[in-house]
Amino acid sequence: MSRTAILRQMQADLQQCRRCGLCQGRTQAVLGAGVPNSRIVIVGEGPGRNEDEQGKPFVGRSGQLLDRMLEEVGLSRNKNVFITNIVKCRPPENRDPQPEEIAACRVWLDQILALIDPKVILCVGRIAATQLFDPHFRVTRQHGETRQLDGRLVMATFHPAAILRNPSYKEMMEADLRKLAQLIEEDGML
After folding, report:
1. Is-contact 86 126, C-beta < 8 A?
2. Cys-Cys with 51: which of 47, 60, 62, 163 at CB 3.0–4.6 Å?
């Protein structure tokens, strides 16, 4: 079975998931979107209202900003990136996911990473970074740093929603994305 077919089946299975209470308020669970054989997986926090309605990650204002910023460095969910989140259902009123919700959803993220087998994971925002980069992550101090995790390069940066709230962070996130693109180009990962 192809990766695309497996992802379609995972998306269908995810709609039946009842591992945590987030399922009770969702319209749709959101597995992810992008290129199934990508060398880069971007991991955010969780779906917002637009994502819950459309069933796709990062489709609201912050997702549109992320797409523009990625395109500036030659990356795109349409050609070389897969995007997902730590939790697959929208937390009520966009609150931070609770530890038990994150733990319940981890199986989906692990399956995505095993299937796609990226060389690089880019964590956008504190929630993703504390799960995959450093449990004590501080975005203003550690953005742009890289680490190894299970043979993969992991980098963390700002969430695009933070850029919308505080545009002064945009330049730092742009520098992080340029660094990521350069690392990928140097290693011939794309």
Report:
1. no
2. 47
Give tens-digit pLDDT for 46-76: 999 999 999 999 999 999 999 999 999 999 9
Reported pTM: 0.96
Distance CA 189, CA 120 (A): 9
DSSP 156: E
3-state secondary structure of 190: coil
Name the burial class of residue 33, with classes exposed (0-12), middle (13-18) and buried (19+) by CB atoms within 10 angstroms of its CB.
Answer: buried
pLDDT single digits (tens) 36-54: 999 999 999 999 999 999 9
Q: Phi, psi at residue 44, to the nearest 5°?
A: -105, -160
Instruction: Return the residue matching tokens 């009842």.
Output: 18
| Burial degree of 168 (CB within 10 A; 0-12, 13-18, 19+) | exposed
Distance CA 63, CA 124 (A): 11
Residue % of the chain over a pLDDT of 90: 93
Can you tell me which residue has the tokens 């956008």? 124
Closest CA to 89 of 23, 34, 16: 23
